[in-house]
């Protein structure tokens, strides 16, 4: 009888240890997904920030920012550091942020839209109505953004906000990230 009770207690303890172990495994997986999501999005933000900061006139002499809306931004920047200014377009897809790049070609140089290379840079985007917000030289951090239609010649600061959910409908909850970028070549203009 004592052996049966001892085996029952030992079985109960082993069951509880296994249950607690699986709970810790679930928590570790949750934390890992959350950190991975944040790290991936922050790396993408760093790339976008660097490209926007270094934006300048096109290879044809066009203004630094070609067009700006709440869901798309088109500007010129030497993103691959080869001395040739590319046309860069960030825009919202259905549940993604896409990046379109056009390298100028020909003599004289032209930006042919049919040669645009598009790739997804942020997957699992949670619906947002305003990916980009724009501010003029009077930006203090507390005023409202410029209202559409956006006058690209007045833009000095660009704010980008995304909410990303790597595991839609399940934990972890969507990650909200925001960055504010000053376009270096437009600061004094």
The proportion of residues in beta strands is 25-35%
Report the major sheet: 5 strands, antiparallel
Radius of gyration of CA atoms, rounded to a whole number? 24 Å
How many structural domains?
1
- Main-sheet strand order equals 1-2-3-4-5
Number of strands: 8
Structural class by sheet pairing and helices:
alpha+beta
Order of helices and strands: HEEEEEEEE
Average pLDDT confidence is 87
Low-confidence stretches: none
Distance between the termini: 90 Å
Helix content: 25-40%
Specify the number of helices.
Answer: 1
The geometry reads as elongated
Give a structural overview:
The protein is an alpha+beta fold and 189 residues long. It has one domain. The chain is 28% helix and 26% strand. The chain has one helix and eight strands; from the N terminus they run αββββββββ. The strands form two sheets. The chain has a five-stranded antiparallel sheet, with helices on one face. Strands 6-7-8 form a three-stranded antiparallel sheet, with helices on one face. A hairpin with an 8-residue loop joins strand 2 and strand 3.
């Amino acid at each position: 009888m004592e052996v049966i009770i001892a085996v029952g207690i030992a079985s109960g303890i082993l069951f509880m240890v296994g249950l607690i172990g699986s709970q810790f495994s679930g928590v570790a997986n949750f934390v890992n997904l959350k950190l991975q999501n944040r790290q991936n999005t922050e790396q993408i933000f760093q790339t976008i920030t660097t490209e926007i900061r270094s934006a300048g006139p096109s290879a044809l002499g066009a203004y630094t920012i070609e067009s700006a809306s709440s869901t798309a931004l088109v500007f010129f920047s030497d993103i691959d550091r080869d001395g040739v200014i590319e046309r860069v377009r960030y825009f919202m897809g259905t549940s993604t942020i896409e990046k379109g790049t056009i390298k100028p070609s020909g003599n004289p140089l032209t930006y042919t839209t049919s040669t645009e290379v598009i790739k997804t840079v942020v997957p699992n985007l949670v619906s947002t109505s305003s990916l980009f917000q724009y501010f003029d030289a009077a930006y203090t951090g507390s005023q409202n953004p410029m209202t559409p239609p956006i006058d690209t010649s007045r833009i000095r600061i660009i704010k980008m906000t995304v909410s990303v959910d790597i595991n839609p409908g399940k934990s972890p909850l969507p990650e909200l990230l925001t960055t504010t970028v000053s376009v270096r070549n437009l600061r004094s203009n």
